[in-house]
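Sharing a chain and its predicted structure for anyone who wants a worked example. Both blocks are below, sequence first, tokens second.
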Amino acid sequence: MPKDSVPSLAEVVRHVPDECYDNPTWLGLLYFSRDLLIYAGTVAALLWTDSLWLLIPLWLLAGLAISGLFVLGHDAAHGALFRKSWLNHTVGQIAMLPSLHLYEAWVFGHNRIHHGHTTRQEMDYVWHPVTPKEFAALPRWRKLRHRLEWSCLGAGLYYLRDIWFRKMIWNFDPPEKIRSAVRRDRAIVFAYFAAVSTALAALGLAQYGSWGGAVWMWTKVFAIPFLAWNYSIGATVYVHHICQDIPWSSRRDWNKFRGQVQGTTVIHVPRLLNVFYHNIFLHVAHHVDMRIPFYRLPEATRALCAKFEKEIVVRGFTLRDYLETTRNCKLFDFEAGTWRRYEQPVTQRAETSLLAS
């Protein structure tokens, strides 16, 4: 679509049916209660067993259960889950505790920065690609880290380090307007972590009779599910915005249509997975209008795909597709508007730009 014919985001939003914004309180509370029960049941099962044959599927289930709660918290942070802001805030805080996320920090970084500048160079901080020139200038250890995090096995490591640790818990320096709220949320999350860790250590000490048992109880019930959750969300966010069919834009060329419609995807996942991911893979409609509750995203997606069929990337969920994407999408050439592997030569257009600089 030529740049001068790109519709505004407001024009795109007009194609979303009015009923897609209906969010009755009872339905949001029902989903929240269901996800809490799944998570609590998984934790109870982890407390009960030490059988590796049961622990492995339970760890996977725990990671998915945390993901389910987080997506609900994410919806609440957008003001989409409930009409009442206090209810969104309360449910969002609780739902994000198992993933140790600061609610107000997430609202700022995700709602204002990621959604405000999706796939925009130097602005969107989530899975932001480096250019060939930037990669060449990295020290060797950072090149190795980039190769690991952008590999098929690196999504969880990337999210844990770059999003959760750097931009959520430790290095986040909030604007003055939300500083006290972030300080309060950090205290809540740290208190939750301390209480859960103390309780699990005490249970482990009582059950196994040793400090090694205390550490094991904390590891199997909290640490491993938390790492599983990081892989779950890291891979999820990756496939939403990284794909050979999704070009990132320079600050000059970016517009809201390119970011919110062409800068993400519609991925059809198995129904069992969608129990936990709450339609979040129908990501175009979510980016077009954050106010749409997750259970209305299928209808909104159908309406948008009918109107913008040629502009929306639609694909199925396959391991082969993920492996192909992680193999081909390593660096982004903003001059040519294409993804590159590490070993691919720089395009002629990019070479000219580099020589000129």
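Comments welcome. The first strand starts at residue 265 and ends at 268.
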